[in-house]
Design a protein that fits this description.
By secondary structure, this protein is an alpha/beta fold. The chain contains ten helices and eight strands.
């Protein structure tokens, strides 16, 4: 295995409930999501998973990080890629730097080995977004991105990609066609039904393999559960 860039490790990362409280209800729900992903495609090898939402502020990055963690807790070798080269946040979640990353690889300024960072979560590595480029859509649509995905699949069991929201940008639509499966994050009370329907239509047009929908902040009546996974 090549040497990865090492950064100062934190004892706790913000928003990682699957690390801070593994016995909590949300953590159990993330394990349910992990199981549903595996069982939803019994005849397909789903290894590259795109996580997106309709609009900003629905919790896609938090979900991407926690889903990656629960796969690692199962013993998988996981890479989480911040493919949101417009408003990246994953490096903050894991307290890592964002000096170089995906944009550096796609623009051929860095090698893959130079941008992979270890996290304090065993089995989880991160590639941050890197510097915000002037042409993120073109970089994500390039053959270099396709080659990047093929290369990381040789190194990791599961690759989670955190993508920009679907509406108003084509980045996630492009990536959904390149990945094995897509998860749509829907934050109850934040996004309207029409926006969700439009997002599904966009993914359908791009021939995305929609694995399912994750509802954030959805309270089941008579229960304290606030996370729910719905199969598409």
């Amino acid at each position: 295995m090549f040497s990865k860039r090492k950064t100062k490790k934190s004892t706790m990362a913000r928003k990682l409930i699957t690390v801070s409280d593994m016995t909590s209800i949300p953590s159990e729900q993330y394990r349910t999501i992990r199981a549903n992903i595996k069982f939803s495609q019994p005849n397909q090898d789903v290894r590259t998973i795109l996580v997106t939402s309709s609009i900003a502020g629905e919790g896609k990055s938090t979900n991407a990080a926690n889903i990656g963690v629960v796969f690692a807790q199962e013993g998988k070798n996981v890479l989480i890629v911040d493919a949101d080269m417009r408003k990246p946040t994953l490096h903050h979640t894991f307290y890592l730097d964002n000096i170089s990353g995906l944009s550096s690889v796609l623009s051929r300024q860095s090698t893959l080995q130079e941008v992979i960072q270890e996290t304090f979560v065993e089995g989880v590595d991160i590639i941050s977004s890197g510097a915000i480029p002037p042409n993120p859509t073109e970089l994500l649509a390039s053959e270099t991105m396709t080659s990047f995905l093929a290369e990381v699949k040789d190194l990791y069991d599961i690759i989670i990609l955190d993508a920009p929201p679907l509406l108003f940008l084509s980045d996630a639509q492009i990536l959904s066609n390149k990945c094995d499966g897509t998860l749509l994050i829907v934050n109850t009370g934040v996004v309207g039904k029409a926006a969700v329907i439009k997002s599904k239509s966009i993914l359908t047009v791009s021939k995305a393999n929609i694995l399912g929908v994750i509802l954030n902040n959805y309270k089941i009546k008579g229960s304290t559960y606030e996370y729910y996974y719905g199969k598409e």
